[in-house]
Design goal:
Layout: H1 3-13, E1 20-24, H2 30-42, E2 47-51, H3 62-73, H4 78-91, E3 96-99, H5 102-108, H6 110-119, E4 124-127, H7 136-145, E5 148-151
Parallel strand pairs: 1-2, 2-3, 3-4, 4-5
């Protein structure tokens, strides 16, 4: 059972739904976003969901679009995501999922992403814009590295 599955099971055993807290990583700056995620963990969140900035966040609402646009304007880079995941997972046992569009993963390199995320302590990816029937490369890479896959329908 993965860390995400364990967190959900523990919440259910406690008679409640799992609380997943989302934050756009890098907003208002990298260190503040790390501290905010740690604060979520310290205050009862079961799973942390980090959203890395993306240059065309068409499926996000206005508030997330503004936050990620500001993070990109301040120089956020993909390496900062892994820095944040590492800092958060070193400070807490709460599993961290990354909510990202597929293009940044593809551009970074699917296998490289699948290696770097668990190396930083990440638990898996939520990919809202790719479906399992076309995600063979990601499924293979995530199975190889033990990352959770969360597809949205």
């Amino acid at each position: 059972m993965s860390r995400v599955e364990q967190a959900i099971a523990a919440a259910h055993e406690a008679g409640r739904s799992a609380f997943v807290g989302y934050l756009p990583v890098g907003f208002p700056d990298l260190e503040t976003s790390i501290q905010a995620a740690i604060a979520l963990a310290e205050n009862g969140v079961d799973i942390i969901e980090l959203g890395p900035p993306y240059s065309d966040p068409v499926m996000d609402g206005a508030v997330i679009q503004e936050a990620t646009t500001a993070a990109l304007a301040r120089g956020f880079k993909m390496k900062d995501l892994f820095t944040a995941v590492r800092a958060i997972t070193e400070a807490t046992d709460v599993p961290v999922l990354v909510m990202t569009y597929w293009n940044p993963v593809f551009q970074y390199g699917v296998d490289r992403y699948a290696d770097d995320l668990p190396a930083a302590g990440g638990a898996g990816l939520i990919t809202p814009d790719i479906t399992p029937d076309v995600a063979g490369e990601w499924i293979a890479a995530s199975e190889r590295t033990g990352l959770d896959r969360v597809f949205l329908a």
